[in-house]
Design a protein that fits this description.
Blueprint (H helix, E strand, L loop, with lengths): L2 E7 L4 H14 L4 E4 L3 H12 L10 E2 L10 E4 L10 E5 L6 H6 L2 E7 L3 H16 L3 E6 L6 E5 L1
């Protein structure tokens, strides 16, 4: 049974936090799906992931290509990812179900803590998933570094 990890972004933006989490997930040997809700935003993330801070890149692809099943990281706006991910990272309010949380190794929900709508949506997701019996952790970077603030 997996767990949902909520990441409250307040100090670093998505384009800096996501690569760090993707590298850790790949280091664990997991295939990852990054699930968003807006294709233009996923295109933007696609560009950002080609050049990560040190000039390297994270091997990944955008859903809809002929080699989706081979991608170690697949950016998609669909719930079914053909790359058979062990981890799904939800951005920009993308939904995740209890069934997915329990079937996957990990689910990461990244949300902008400076956006009241994103904060409210994350609270609803936390309540829904924990009320359904999912294990969850809440991580904050309020102090300047990532700290676990809650676990259920």
């Amino acid at each position: 049974m997996g767990a949902a990890y909520f990441y409250h972004l307040t100090k670093t933006p998505l384009e800096q936090t996501l690569p760090m989490l993707l590298e850790k997930s790949r280091g664990a040997g997991w295939r990852v799906a990054v699930r968003g809700i807006d294709t233009a935003r996923l295109d933007w993330l696609d560009e950002k992931l080609w050049l990560v801070g040190d000039g390297s890149f994270l091997a990944h692809g955008r859903a809809g290509g002929p080699h989706d099943a081979d991608q170690p990281i697949l950016l998609t706006d669909q719930p079914d990812a053909p790359n058979d991910p062990a981890c799904v990272m939800c951005v920009d309010g993308a939904e995740i179900s209890k069934a997915e949380v329990t079937a996957l190794e990990r689910v990461c929900i990244l949300f902008d803590g400076n956006d009241e709508a994103a904060l409210a949506a994350a609270r609803v997701q936390w309540k829904s998933l924990t009320d359904d019996g999912c294990s969850a952790q809440y991580w904050s970077q309020e102090s300047g570094r990532w700290e676990k603030k809650a676990e259920r």
